[in-house]
Amino acid sequence: MNAAAIAPLSAQGFDLPRPYLLFLGDADDSGFLKTGLGLRDWAPDLCVAEYKCDGARASLGLPLMRPDEAYRAGARALVLSVASIGGAIAPAWVPYIVEALEAGLDIISGAHDRLVEEPRLRAAAERLGRRLIDVRVPPPGLPIASGRPRSGKRLLTVGTDCALGKKYTALALAAAFRARGLDADFRATGQTGIMIAGSGIPIDSVVSDFVAGAAERLSPDADPGHWDVIEGQGSIFHPSYAGVSLGLLHGSQPDILVLCHAHGRDRIMGLPDYVLPSIGEAVELSLRLARRTNAAVRCAGVSLNTAGLPADEAEALIARRSREWELPVADPMRGGPSFERLVDACLG
């Protein structure tokens, strides 16, 4: 096998072998399984089983299989579905990944560490004729943004903070648009979304000067009736990640914003000295910044993450917040009339 065969794939489309065996590593807490949870929830037909290190306690609720069993069941790739501190590929995982290679599976990773930079994995892949696919690699030749208006329609999910449902909201809205007979694409900007959709650009790996240009490439000129529903990243209110959020906001040139917020969260994740903005402040600043490249942008409503609340409490909260914020409010994962009203507002 030559080196090019195991080099990271680039460009918007990824040649991902499917379906998947989801590798959970040595995680004891499902909080480290963001990629696995996203694949399980949004691409269940692609998820054959889960596989983990001996003694690991976290689970996605999928059948537990060794790689050879999963291959016989139809799996064609092992996906690293667990996040480690700093995005590293833990040394303890390597023997398990090698076992997957030996079972006939290619390996897909969204970690910051590159599969091809781990000597044992590279040697095993070359020996066995298998592929190591790093999706957290931006395409080459990204331009700086032009700011030129583009045809078609665009919706971008933005947030009061990180990790509160921007990807899930974008996926749910794209599916709802298609269910209404509209031409709509989910545009992935993170590794999990790319694995779900099979295409996208990992925005957090793009050099800062080219983030807005990457967003322009991700949602190019389209038919006037076509919708690109773009997965947001970070938050303009997060001191660590505001830069990538602003570049994505300008380059996407959204016609519609949907603000995402997590019920009960009042401090920036990882930076508890920083208080979250009010919904009014978040909407106002997001629109003001978005108008730099699309003067007609508007906020259609709020996607409210109510995970952990009983259904009746969540429904009452959504109705109360909608009155308070004077916007359509819904939890896309719960669906129902409130979500349909949010969809109406996006399309209206």
TrEMBL record:
It comes from the Bacteria. Pfam families: DUF1611 (PF07755), DUF1611_N (PF17396). Residues 62-138 form the D-glutamate N-acetyltransferase-like N-terminal domain. Transmembrane segments: none annotated. Residues 144-337 form the D-glutamate N-acetyltransferase-like C-terminal domain. PANTHER family: DUF1611 DOMAIN-CONTAINING PROTEIN (PTHR40690:SF1), GLL3100 PROTEIN (PTHR40690). This is DUF1611 domain-containing protein. It comes from Rhizorhabdus wittichii (strain DSM 6014 / CCUG 31198 / JCM 15750 / NBRC 105917 / EY 4224 / RW1) (Sphingomonas wittichii).
